[in-house]
């Protein structure tokens, strides 16, 4: 499960960085809970939360598919793309909407999620 393991490792580091960014802004503005009405903090909180909402299911799908098929170029590409689009999403969250960074992050996440979901379903029904 090389593709999933490497993707999870890089995504774990990115999640840690997103966490540190929230903490830094909380400390800078003296906000211990919530966003304190600070829109920049709200954007960082949502970038962090959105990552936590989407990435785990994608990693689970990758792992299940990789268990059934082995490491493939498509899974490896999906992992690299996931990491890059999650960076784009985090960057885009700090910019006024709509912006191409956030749109790429959101759209890319949906493409990977739907593609891996379909792949998993096909594997389940064609390989028992």
Question: Your description of this structure?
Answer:
The structure is a single chain. The protein has 128 residues and is mainly α. It has a single domain (2-126), classed as Membrane associated eicosanoid/glutathione metabolism-like domain (Four Helix Bundle (Hemerythrin (Met), subunit A)), CATH 1.20.120.550. The protein is built from four helices and no strands. It is elongated and about 55 Å long. It starts with a helix and ends with a helix.
Please give the structural blueprint.
Blueprint: H1 2-29, H2 39-69, H3 73-93, H4 100-126
The overall pLDDT average reads: 96
Q: Any idea what the CATH architecture is? A: Up-down Bundle
Low-confidence stretches: none
Provide the domain count. 1
Give a brief outline of the structure.
This protein has 128 residues and is an all-alpha fold.
Name a few traits of the molecule.
128 residues, mainly alpha, Four Helix Bundle (Hemerythrin (Met), subunit A), 4 helices, 84% helix, 0% strand
